[in-house]
Automatic annotation (TrEMBL):
<dbReference type="GO" id="GO:0055085">
    <property type="term" value="P:transmembrane transport"/>
</dbReference>
<dbReference type="InterPro" id="IPR027417">
    <property type="entry name" value="P-loop_NTPase"/>
</dbReference>
<keyword id="KW-0547">Nucleotide-binding</keyword>
<dbReference type="InterPro" id="IPR003439">
    <property type="entry name" value="ABC_transporter-like_ATP-bd"/>
</dbReference>
<protein>
    <submittedName>
        <fullName>ABC transporter ATP-binding protein</fullName>
    </submittedName>
</protein>
<dbReference type="InterPro" id="IPR050319">
    <property type="entry name" value="ABC_transp_ATP-bind"/>
</dbReference>
<dbReference type="GO" id="GO:0005524">
    <property type="term" value="F:ATP binding"/>
</dbReference>
<dbReference type="InterPro" id="IPR017871">
    <property type="entry name" value="ABC_transporter-like_CS"/>
</dbReference>
<dbReference type="Pfam" id="PF00005">
    <property type="entry name" value="ABC_tran"/>
</dbReference>
<dbReference type="InterPro" id="IPR003593">
    <property type="entry name" value="AAA+_ATPase"/>
</dbReference>
<keyword id="KW-0813">Transport</keyword>
<dbReference type="GO" id="GO:0016887">
    <property type="term" value="F:ATP hydrolysis activity"/>
</dbReference>
<feature type="domain" description="ABC transporter">
    <location>
        <begin position="9"/>
        <end position="256"/>
    </location>
</feature>
<keyword id="KW-0067">ATP-binding</keyword>
Amino acid sequence: MRIVEQEVLVAKNVTKQYSSGQKAVDQVSFVIKKDECLGLVGESGSGKSTLARCVLALEKVDQGEIWFKEKPLHLANKEDLRYIRREVQAVFQNPAAALNPKLKIIDSLMEPLDFQKNIQPSFLKGIRHQREKAAEQLLEMVELPSKYLSCYPHELSGGQKQRVTIARAISIEPALIILDEPTASLDVSVQAKIMNLLKDLQQYLGVSYLFISHDLAAVNFMSDRIMVMKQGKIVDEFSKYDLFSLKREPYTKELLHVFEG
Ligand SMILES: Nc1ncnc2c1ncn2[C@@H]1O[C@H](COP(=O)(O)OP(=O)(O)OP(=O)(O)O)[C@@H](O)[C@H]1O
């Protein structure tokens, strides 16, 4: 398949069926462009996380194609997978589960950089191999003081832990970050702060996002374009400025109704 330069990820007719026979993802196609945030909204069980796992190459697709830049995820060999794992990072709902409780924050944070010695992120120029300085810089980017580097995860709040997982995701300067309900486990006041941080980071780093949530308000705040998923299918797709258009599908209007309260 021909990939246009500005396209970071292209999914074409992706289908994933579990052994129960149910199609969790059914003929889904989309494009994520450089620097853009694509939002994916749908109620629980609509297939959002399954699609995310396919994009992360954690699930094998049954039909269709997923291309990350010029690499076919659906046919990826070991070397392609190594490249994709570096370029596509993820932040999930539960930061407590994402951090090893036995590791100090500095060690969880630096895991990707410790592992991939040859990566030179632009924002760590001159300090890439000074481990503590690099870790301090990463924490600063997510607005956390460096004193947390020597703490264990249980000493941090949920929002602080999520900031650490975000810092870890950006640490190797990926091209795409999958954000799967990144604020769902956090207090409402913290949710807004994390979303603002994610927006600022996106602008600063020029990274692309796939932002996944059941909350249309959150998706609308974060995204340039929005896809609505229902029972494994994309039932609506539009620019965020067209959310209130009369042309929206009835299901989007239902979600909108919940959002407007
Ligand atoms: N490992 C699995 N084995 C079998 N069925 C699964 C598996 N994972 C998900 N499913 C089913 O696939 C469908 C889509 O689930 P998925 O978790 O992708 O939806 P979701 O929109 O992310 O929901 P949620 O927001 O609740 O996580 C659901 O019916 C779910 O029960």
